[in-house]
Amino acid sequence: MRNVSIDNVDSLARDVVAIGNDYAQGFLLPLHRHRRAQLLYGATGQMHVSTRDGEWVVPPQHAVWIPPETLHAVKFVGVTTRSLYIAPECAARLIHRNRCDVISVSPLLRQLLLEAVDLPPLYESEHECALMNLLLLELAAMPAREFDIPLPRQPALLALCQTFLLAPTVHDPAERWARAMFMSASTFRRHFLQQTGMSFSAWRQRACVVSALAMLITGKPVNEVALSLGYDNGSSFATMFRRVTGQPPSFYHPA
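Above: the chain sequence. Below: its structure as tokens.
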């Protein structure tokens, strides 16, 4: 099925519903939720997914796992998507994740996703059911990528984090944040870890990596990205980026 809303086909008597959609540049799906879990795959372009717990950048040829009933918004940057909507009881057996995750998409999973949206809505032949079963098995084997930025619930700290994400820099000191929160540096670091599950320095680096990822996908030169994040040169940035993501910055440049 193509360019239809899951709300119109959610009641189909199948564990998995596959839908393909095309989105205009900059299209925003406001906060919404689904009864089913969703695997949202971007065949082209870039997606930004946000929930109350964090933000995710989804590069081309990756997908994001969204658990059932998760309130989320998605911004699409020139994206053609393939989505699987998986019944909650099936999703619970398949992937034991109760949070969003960006996942790698293998060549096999990619091809299965492309094929799935062309199946009849009420697929039932042996071949069609085998394709869907193989798709779910391959999905369960895919690793998660650390392309998320956890966000705190505490309002004052959340405001600081959201301001930082507008212009992240690797050298922003914890002491500045601590003063803004009227805390000592040590108290602030403990509070930040409690709120986000990450140390301040690790979160700051993650935010810079995810921001860099979004810029690299648009074709910005590595040196320009590095300097915008406060690195002295492209080489030091590339070393950090590869250590965190496992890939050089050039891997995410458009072909």
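Residues 55 and 149 are 5 Å apart (CA to CA).
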